[in-house]
Amino acid sequence: MSTTVTARKTASGGRAGDSIFSGLSLGAGVLILAVLAAVALFLFLQALPTFQAPAEDISGGAGFWSYIWPMVIGTVVAAVIALVIATPIGVLVALYISHYAPARIAKPVGYVIDLLAAIPSVIYGAWGTTVLASSMVPFYAWLSGNLGFIPFFAGPPSQTGKTMLTAGVVLAIMILPIITAMSRELFVQTPKLHEEAALALGATRWEMIRMTVLPFARPGIVSAVMLALGRALGETMAVALVLSSGPLTASLVQSGNQTIAAEIALNFPEAYGLRLSELIAAGLILFVITLVVNMIARAIVARYKEFSGAN
């Protein structure tokens, strides 16, 4: 009898605990959505005067979209350059740490990668503008002289090295820890039985990785890349310090171009009136771009999560 009563009390307490935890989880989820909606509403209301103002009153005198469009292109180009550089390096480093390096090397390398994520962005920007930019000038001269027929490397190269390509390299270094750390965690979670089965069938280590590890981690790698893309799109101080802003240009070795985040950081302290509304409207555009990127990432992950070559 006493055992039955105790079991009922335990079950009742368990159900109460489940209900409390469920309520707290639901509240946290609703809070996140409420904060996101509040931010979007604030940006929209503060940006509304910009959308209603005459085109000649907007910076540049040609309307808001003519003002913001070059910065949208610059933001996307800088982020794409960073992803193109950081994604293969990050995945390869993660593979080296998880499947090739001995433990005495893998752990220190992992610690260094994690340490890179803790460095403030302004430090990256200061290093980029004082060290990296000047060291890239000879490389830009070579690109312009030998590959100048390609629009991306056309025209006289920058003498300061503060170009969109330099900004992309700095962003690549900044997002490298995100891709590497997340990929490494995914690679080590690959079922060992799958890896051992591939090796037992005569596969080389690379074939085993290609057949089991990479298919198993593919959705997670996509998530890591998209998370890194969000960081690159919204990066402010590093780009503001490294990039010499100017008119939109297709050349990556010339000074010019600008990103939305850097434009806001450089002009917000002195802005007021309609100019302040312009910058908040630019922030709204960046908010929408980041939201769309994350929605696309979730759609890609949902599409491929049902099938994995390691299943």
Automatic annotation (TrEMBL):
GO biological process: phosphate ion transport
Membrane topology reported for the UniProt record: Multi-pass membrane protein
Superkingdom in the source lineage: Bacteria
Keyword Transport attached: yes
Predominant cellular place of this UniProt entry's protein: membrane
UniProt key word ATP-binding: no
Domain ABC transmembrane type-1 span(s) in chain numbering: 72-297
Free-text function comment from the UniProt entry: Part of the binding-protein-dependent transport system for phosphate; probably responsible for the translocation of the substrate across the membrane.
Protein name as annotated: Phosphate transport system permease protein
Organism the protein comes from: Kocuria sediminis
Encoding gene per record: pstC
